[in-house]
Fold this sequence. Notes:
two-stranded antiparallel ribbon; Arc Repressor Mutant, subunit A; homodimer
Amino acid sequence: MTQSIRVAVSTVILTLRRTESGDAVLALPLVLRTREPFADQWALPGGWLTTAESPVDASARTLSETTGLAPSYLEQLYAFGAVDRSPTRVVSIVYWALLRQDDVDAQSEAHRASGRAPENVRWFDIDDLPSLAFDHAKIIEYALWRLRNKVGYSRVAHGFLPSEFTLADLREAYEAILGKSLDPANFRRQVEASGNLLPTDRFRTGSHRPARLYRYNTDVALADRGPLGPEETSIR
Amino acid sequence: MTQSIRVAVSTVILTLRRTESGDAVLALPLVLRTREPFADQWALPGGWLTTAESPVDASARTLSETTGLAPSYLEQLYAFGAVDRSPTRVVSIVYWALLRQDDVDAQSEAHRASGRAPENVRWFDIDDLPSLAFDHAKIIEYALWRLRNKVGYSRVAHGFLPSEFTLADLREAYEAILGKSLDPANFRRQVEASGNLLPTDRFRTGSHRPARLYRYNTDVALADRGPLGPEETSIR
């Protein structure tokens, strides 16, 4: 049987970056398309699924080729397949990951040094996105919705933070994800009651009064992929 | 560009059915394959995605053709795309839904009466599945894992119940999903504290002492599809 339907992958990589005004905002990398359809418009990193690789491997490959980024875990976001989402019939399997800003900086720098980094990649704050190709605006909106839902019942914000962090760091990540301010005292009570955080003996010192550093309780696995093996869920 | 990758859909339909011994067990419909690959083995209802329909519409169509079932909402479970999951290269987008046993009975009966019901469909209890084609055993295992996870933070068990039910009915559904017995008093405390249930003025009477009927608090939508439209998420 011949099908005139092709399979593509796209990847939503979110990081928390500090603006010049000192705020933390969510940002993601986009690629300026050089050919039709949607030439000269921005799109998520991605490409065609090839015969010899799984969708998650294709996501990792195309992400690495364009941005140099190599997240330790890519989660499947959704398979988008509406009939009219592209001028030709394309089903896109979309993956997503959260990356710490320092990992983004290190991996991007190594990619530039390799001489293989394309010129047409740029990071955008999610509240200042350009016009997007295909249904990629909707895909990003869905990824942000999923992130906001997930932050309520999991340790997803950990993906933005170093191994040790202050409660103010964690609250700042939650505020950027949820797009609203949180009361510091309420936030402290809630995260302490959750049992997810363990206090360390260390403090961050600086211009403010010393703030205790916390780490996540790693008795619970961060990325529980359930019964699926690595061929369906992550990068080998 | 030509891709030798084809796109299929499959559907996992779960219901809670009562065995002859009076227990409630999870069950799902399977289709006996009549051709290669995996001829004479059981598989999930499904088929090829056609050019003019979205994956969720293809799931609804193939499910209806084989089983006569028409769930009001199909949720995307996962896109399975491992290279070796089929003798040829196939990406399967899998949807799932929960159906009440009385809806299953009514829709199956109407399908049989139509004269279009195929002979090769049968329901199986999930603890007594036959040998399955492709990676369908893993897909079912993943659907059950997702259901068990979801029951903890959502009203997913509602999909198995009529609009009014006793706490014993609800506990029985949870026990079938989780595969373990739950303490009746603890269970009552937890669901009452959740705020998800509203007591009615009605009682079920019969051979036992009268049991109060409850309904779900429908202030919260049961199936929150987020920012995705119906072309990606459900049946029109």
